[in-house]
Design goal:
mainly alpha, binds zinc ion
Length: 103
């Protein structure tokens, strides 16, 4: 249980759309409609209170994460892990389009 809480604590500081740690966001998070900073989504995913690409599917985002990590020469198991993790983020959890997130 403690471990789970610790995990949730870490998750809070990640963009709940792409999984990027918000501390790496040069803009310190996306922007809400009123101009305040979002603590949920990064500036690449979210601006002015809405997703930049509302039509993006979970598969699209997983593909994007894999490509980004490949550019950074991340090993295959990191790419697989991070792509899997995308499905557990708040934006995608409710979509339920990926069976891997339910196991
Ligand atoms: Zn993001």
């Amino acid at each position: 249980m403690k471990k789970l809480l610790k995990q949730l604590e870490l998750e809070k500081n990640r963009c709940q759309s792409c999984g990027m740690p918000l501390q790496f966001d040069p803009q310190d998070g996306g922007s809400e409609a009123d101009g305040s900073r979002s603590r949920t989504y990064c500036s690449y995913c979210y601006a002015d209170g809405q997703f930049r690409e509302p039509g993006l599917s979970l598969e699209d985002m997983q593909q994007r994460v894999r490509q980004l990590l490949r550019k950074r020469n991340a090993p295959w198991y990191i790419r697989a892990y991070m792509a899997h993790r995308v499905a557990t983020l708040a934006r995608w959890r409710s979509a339920g389009s990926c069976a891997c997130s339910r196991t």
